[in-house]
Amino acid sequence: MRFVEEIVVEEFLPTFRSMLAGDLRERGLTQREVADALGISQSAVSKYAHGEVGRREEFLEDERVVELVDRIGEGLATGDMTPVQALVEAEVLVRRLEQGDLLATMHEEEMPGLAEYDGDLSVHDPDSGLRTAERVRSSVRRALRTLTNASGFAGLIPNVGSNLVECLPDAAGIEDIAGVPGRIFDVKGRATVPNDPEFGVSEHAASVLLEARRGGADVSAALNVRYDPDVVSALESAGHTAIEFDPEAEDPIVAAVEDCENPTETFVLYQTGGFGIEAITYILGPDAQTVARTVRDTLLG
């Protein structure tokens, strides 16, 4: 694990300071004056001058960095810019380079897992897509542990396998929903999760979740288990709304949800099968952990 701040401290700052020190020396400032202007030691200025500090070509060749060095160098040399203003200008450039730009690219090269997130990446933004997506994946991971650690969950897995999914707040398609690649299967009486949760890997459970949301349900997670009248009855007895739908009807889930008045926060959708269609029960709720705990406490307790 390497933070983008480490790249700033270990790669950008030595290069930037050495460029600025060189610029100021060329403008006639002494080593002492350069050291005072930059808030560093004279020995550090000497190391910069003698090329004893490693510098990254990416920054040396970036026009924005070169322009800022020239502007700050001129301002500090003439007294038109204070060290505080110089710091602010440098901070602004650093934040810019972190926002889907040069520093972000370098960070992705060292942390390849970041590259899967499209758009402008901001690891500092508390509302960034990256942070939200990772929180959803983390929620699914924790919920999966709840299920797989519960005795008897394997017996609830249907022939087609189960999947536990959770979506992003503004999910518009399957790519916005995290689930288990390859689904969860019963392997010799043990619920087996083959891979870590990913986005865009579930069509079945994710589609049900999207359709329920399209029907007006305020839910963000879903899990499918085998259908059994006793399963549905147990969930109803625990206070959860149970809604039956016809899998062969047009927009069956949307219609079923729309027709249900005031379903509970965590509710049940189920169908009893059809020609070539396995009977299935779906538990939907506000997040994956709530859904998992509902199954554990109601059906496996």
TrEMBL record:
- Pfam families, from UniProt? HTH_3, ThiN
Q: Which domain of life is it from?
A: Archaea
SMART domains (alphabetical): HTH_XRE (SM00530)
Q: Which residues form the HTH cro/C1-type domain?
A: 26-48
Instruction: Provide a Gene Ontology MF annotation, just one.
Output: DNA binding
Please state what the protein is called. HTH cro/C1-type domain-containing protein
Q: What organism does the UniProt record list as the source?
A: Halopelagius inordinatus
